[in-house]
């Protein structure tokens, strides 16, 4: 009886306020889509970190004839210097940190360079001697790169020791900035959504102030009076959050998995539908909670006895 | 039943209080007229009883509840023991007579079975048994007020507050309403009625409390709209020294 009455009141409120309810739905939809996109972007960053950090190497560049940076004096690293570095890599102090290492000769470096810059005029000017020989070291724990940098930077014939994670971090900071922007836009939109819900509920309460007055007069409990209004707000924003959830799923399915993964090929991992499925309930809970909170604040003015 | 103990009510932003050290007691089963000019504090008095307002000073006890310390959460449950009727009826235009009366029971969570029994009883009592499916705008003013009264008493309240219930009605219709209120009073409900209608007050010969500028200037049993009998209390009322025992005997 009471439940039916409360639902009926909420339903009639929604019908009476269709245009406001639609705007609430749309604003919640868009704002939560941004929230979802921001979460997905963070997930993407996390996945890429996991993927790339495992592959990131520490490169120990040996001197070439033309270098005078680092420990180089425009003389190529000698066999002995290379052997010395290799011996250090194999030494008991460094060996435990190292999973494996490879030595890249001038010719291998040249081959890689020609492949990478095949379409670039610079490829024609470069000779194998211009490119550094290097040790490519995979660490057991990529965060320990500093150990290698410290112990090898000073060695004779070493031009530089470079942690490739540094290059990746730039990419991640760009992605991070994008996700913070999305969060910022989402926050603004959520403020708009909350205010809009509050206004809608006030309007709805105002159009029913006669009933509210009588309810208060005859002793309807506050909970009984406010529940229909809260349900009204929650219902509207729930539709919006469901739409946002659907949009997030669609973006992942058709844009990320469909378009991006085809374009980028197998170069990196991308968030999948299983990640998006995790995001959807978050959006629904956020939408419903915000609506309930703002609606109950909005209606509280009508509950003062 | 209702006890005011040196109650003052001042609305913010005004220097003159709406009620000024009012003390009185109304006993169970009494029929009390509240008379006085507009702005004399009648409505504030009724609103204080309903706890729509809290007094600035003084203590109010209604139905054994100390209203000053009644929490907001308990106010609705307290109000279920009061019935209220207004000059402007305050019916819901989009509900039928039956639904208007049933609405008050629905919102306090009464069962469907109880509503099906209580509403026709109340409508029969006010003489509208055959009109339960009509809408308020299809009824005359007197009939609308009867619906409002049915709504006020359907939950068998201990106290019925009426704020100028005959203010919008012609004398003949008013008389009908008064007969109805009298019958409700006879069944044991305390009735407190604010009114400007001198004819009704003179004719009914009930307890009359007169307010001027927020103070009780007269409280007499079987009084008229204007002072005729010797007052139960003198002008001591200005100082708020009403003796409840004396006036409510």
TrEMBL record, chain A:
> Where would I find the ABC3 transporter permease C-terminal domain in this sequence?
185-299
Q: Does the keyword Plastid apply?
A: no
Name listed for the protein in its UniProt record: Cell division protein FtsX
From the UniProt record, list the coiled-coil ranges. none
Keywords annotated in UniProt: Cell cycle, Cell division, Cell membrane, Membrane, Transmembrane, Transmembrane helix
- Name where it's found: Cell membrane
The UniProt transmembrane annotation reads 21-45, 177-201, 229-256, 276-299
How is the quaternary structure described?
A: Forms a membrane-associated complex with FtsE.
Stated role: Part of the ABC transporter FtsEX involved in cellular division.
| Residue span(s) of domain FtsX extracellular | 57-161
Q: Which Pfam families match?
A: FtsX (PF02687), FtsX_ECD (PF18075)
Q: Which InterPro entries match?
A: ABC3_permease_C, FtsX, FtsX_actino, FtsX_ECD
How the protein sits in the membrane? Multi-pass membrane protein
Question: What does the entry list under GO cellular component?
Answer: plasma membrane
Which protein family is named in the record?
A: Belongs to the ABC-4 integral membrane protein family. FtsX subfamily.
Q: Which NCBIfam families match?
A: FtsX_actino
GO BP term, example: cell division
From TrEMBL, chain B:
Q: Its topology with respect to the membrane? A: Peripheral membrane protein
* ABC transporter domain location: 2-238
| Pfam families (alphabetical) | ABC_tran
The protein's GO terms of the molecular function aspect are: ATP binding; ATP hydrolysis activity; transmembrane transporter activity
The alphabetized UniProt keywords are: ATP-binding, Cell cycle, Cell division, Cell membrane, Membrane, Nucleotide-binding
InterPro entries in the record: AAA+_ATPase (IPR003593), ABC_transporter-like_ATP-bd (IPR003439), ABC_transporter-like_CS (IPR017871), ABC_transpr_LolD-like (IPR015854), Cell_div_FtsE (IPR005286), P-loop_NTPase (IPR027417)
| The UniProt record lists the keyword Zinc | no
Q: What cellular component GO annotations does this protein have?
A: plasma membrane
The UniProt record lists the keyword Iron-sulfur: no
Q: One biological-process term from Gene Ontology?
A: cell division
Q: SMART domains under this entry?
A: AAA
The principal localisation class reads: membrane
Compartments reported by the entry: Cell membrane
The family note in this entry says: Belongs to the ABC transporter superfamily.
Q: How does it assemble?
A: Homodimer. Forms a membrane-associated complex with FtsX.
Function summary: Part of the ABC transporter FtsEX involved in cellular division. Has ATPase activity.
Please report the name of this protein according to its UniProt entry.
Answer: Cell division ATP-binding protein FtsE
Encoding gene per record: ftsE
């Amino acid at each position: 009886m009471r439940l039916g009455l409360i639902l009926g009141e909420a339903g009639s409120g929604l019908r009476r306020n269709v245009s406001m309810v639609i705007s609430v739905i749309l604003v919640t939809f868009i704002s939560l889509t941004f929230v979802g996109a921001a979460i997905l972007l963070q997930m993407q960053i996390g996945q890429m970190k996991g993927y790339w950090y495992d592959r990131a190497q520490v490169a120990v560049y040996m001197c070439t004839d033309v270098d005078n940076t680092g420990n180089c004096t425009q003389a190529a690293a000698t066999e002995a210097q290379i052997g010395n570095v290799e011996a250090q890599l194999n030494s008991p102090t460094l060996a435990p940190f190292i999973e494996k290492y490879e030595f890249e000769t001038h010719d291998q470096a040249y081959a890689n360079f020609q492949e990478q810059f095949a379409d670039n005029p610079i490829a024609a000017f470069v000779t194998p001697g211009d490119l550094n020989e290097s040790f490519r070291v995979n660490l057991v724990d990529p965060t320990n790169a500093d150990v290698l940098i410290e112990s090898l930077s000073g060695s004779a014939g070493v031009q530089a020791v470079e942690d490739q994670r540094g290059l990746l971090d730039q990419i991640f900071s760009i992605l991070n900035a994008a996700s913070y922007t999305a969060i910022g836009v989402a926050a603004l939109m959520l403020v708009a959504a909350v205010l809009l819900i509050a206004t809608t509920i006030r309007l709805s309460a105002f159009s029913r102030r006669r009933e509210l007055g009588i309810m208060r007069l005859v002793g309807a409990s506050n909970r009984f009076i406010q529940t229909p209004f809260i349900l009204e707000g929650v219902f509207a924003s729930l539709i919006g959050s469901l739409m946002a959830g659907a949009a997030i799923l669609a973006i992942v399915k058709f844009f990320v998995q469909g378009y991006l993964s085809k374009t980028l090929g197998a170069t990196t991992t991308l968030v999948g539908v299983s990640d998006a499925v995790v995001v959807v309930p978050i959006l629904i809970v956020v939408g419903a909670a915000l609506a309930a909170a703002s609606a109950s604040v909005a209606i509280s003015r009508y509950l003062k006895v | 039943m209702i006890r005011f103990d040196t109650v003052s009510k001042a609305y913010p932003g005004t220097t003159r209080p709406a009620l000024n050290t009012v003390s009185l007691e109304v006993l169970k089963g009494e029929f009390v007229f509240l008379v006085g000019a507009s702005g004399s504090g009648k409505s504030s008095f009724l609103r204080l009883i309903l706890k729509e307002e809290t007094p600035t000073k003084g203590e109010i006890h209604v139905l054994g509840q100390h209203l000053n310390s009644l929490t907001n959460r308990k106010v609705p449950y307290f109000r279920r023991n009061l019935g209220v009727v207004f000059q402007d009826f305050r019916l819901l235009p989009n509900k039928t007579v039956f639904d208007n009366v049933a609405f008050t029971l629905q919102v306090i969570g009464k069962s469907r079975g109880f509503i099906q029994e209580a509403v026709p009883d109340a409508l029969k009592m006010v003489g509208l048994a055959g009109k339960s499916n009509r809408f308020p705008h299809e009824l005359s003013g007197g009939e609308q007020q009867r619906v409002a009264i049915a709504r006020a008493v359907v939950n068998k309240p201990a106290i019925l507050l009426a704020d100028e219930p005959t203010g919008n009605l012609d004398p003949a219709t008013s008389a009908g309403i008064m007969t109805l209120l009298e019958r409700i009073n006879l069944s044991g409900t305390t009735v407190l009625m604010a009114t400007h209608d001198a004819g009704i007050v003179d004719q009914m010969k009930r307890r009359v409390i007169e307010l001027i500028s927020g103070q009780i200037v007269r409280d007499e049993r079987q009084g008229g709209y204007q002072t005729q009998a010797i007052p139960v209390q003198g002008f001591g009322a200005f100082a708020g020294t009403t003796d409840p025992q004396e006036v409510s005997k």
